[in-house]
Amino acid sequence: MKVIFLMVISVGALWADSFAPAAGEPGSMAVALDDARVQRWATAVAQYSPGEDVDERWQVPENALGEAEGNAFDIVGLGRGGEITLEFSPVIQDGKGADFAVFENGFSDTFLELAFVEVSSDGVNFFRFENVSETDRAVGAFGSVNPRKVDGLAGKYRLGFGTPFDLQDLEGTVGLDVSAVKYVRLIDVVGGTSLDSTGGVIYDPWPGSGAAGFDLDAVAVLGVVETRVLSTEIVNQACVIHWESVPGEVYVVERNTCLGEEGWALVEEVEALLAMTEITQPLAGADRSFFRVRLR
Fold first, then answer.
1. Does 161 share its domain with 179?
2. DSSP for residue 155
3. Which of 131, 183, 246, 269 could form an S-S bond across to 120 if both were Cys, CB 3.0 to 4.6 Å?
4. Residues near 181 by Cβ (< 8 Å), separated by ≥ 6?
5. In terms of Cα–Cα distance, which of 209, 186, 210, 205 is closest to 49?
6. Which structural domain range is residue 142 located in?
7. What does the alpha-carbon distance between residue 246 and residue 271 come to, in Å, rounded to a whole number?
8. Are residues 232 and 215 in the same domain?
9. Cα–Cα distance, 221 to 34 (Å, whole number)
10. Are the beta carbons of 21 and 28 closer than 8 angstroms?
């Protein structure tokens, strides 16, 4: 694990809503299509079964391969209740944080067409991520869904931003090797009919016509990005540290009087809300201090 060391010579409240907010808001888990964590993309279509009310022009499953385009047209439509299974070579492995992200083509932060997400190591046995929808009433064809009321379903974010999934959530599932996931399956949520993991009804835009259901842009495989300190400065007898961060990840800041493997004391654990995080640490009483920042 790479750790950032800093040497210094001495002289908030979280959102109260149930789940993460829309892309671009503090605390959002959205993955931009050009996010540094993106390593690669789906390599093959293993299966595609379009549902109802999707025109033939949108029934091009190969549009889900390769990089996300971030527009409304280079997609494959699932149709009402349809599904697609994508293959990954090399396989997706459980690592630190989210392991893959699913990109849809919603045109706003609240026009959210949703899909269940399932994974498989062998292409036969598929296992679904737990999911919750707290939308409590029917949503019209172009109605709104609050992203803070959705969790564990693809399509939570507008076009250009993917919904992340962490294989650790399925660790210990019999029949699944989280270190070798070869397939990801997306199944369209039918608004007012499909049920979430709690047994509650899921509401998303319904009915649609011509392009009904979930529209898949791409699926990205994610990797860990090493922590990179952007700047440090001494202000009023305190050290101010700024570093690049991934929203939703927790960073550990530690302090020592010398470099080495032992003697590091916890300063603070910080959950990142934005792509840059900072802390201010008083320096009073120390002749010399070293700080390091790492992912928890």
1. yes
2. T
3. 183
4. 88, 91, 92, 93, 94, 99, 119, 120, 121, 167
5. 186
6. 37-222
7. 9
8. no
9. 12
10. yes
Amino acid identity, residue 20?
Answer: A
Residues 58-72 pLDDT 10s: 999 999 999 999 999
Residue in the structure block whose two tokens are 């045109």 = 107
Q: Return the percent helix, strand and coil in the chain, to nearest 5.
A: 5, 40, 55
For residue 75, give the nearest of 89, 94, 62 by alpha carbon: 62
Omega before residue 247 within 30° of 0, cis: no
**Rounded Cα–Cα distance for residues 249 and 29 (Å):** 9
DSSP string, 46-62: EEEE--BSB-GGG--GG
Q: How many domains are contained in the chain?
A: 2
CA distance 261 to 91: 34
Which pair of tokens denotes residue 89? Answer: 């070579």
CB atoms within 10 A of CB 25: 16
- Sort 240 into a burial class: Cβ within 10 Å, 0-12 / 13-18 / 19+: middle
Tokens linked to 124: 């036969």
Measured between alpha carbons, how far is 150 from 167 in angstroms, rounded to an integer?
19
Q: What is the pLDDT of residues 32-41, one digit of tens each?
A: 999 989 999 9
pTM for the whole structure: 0.77
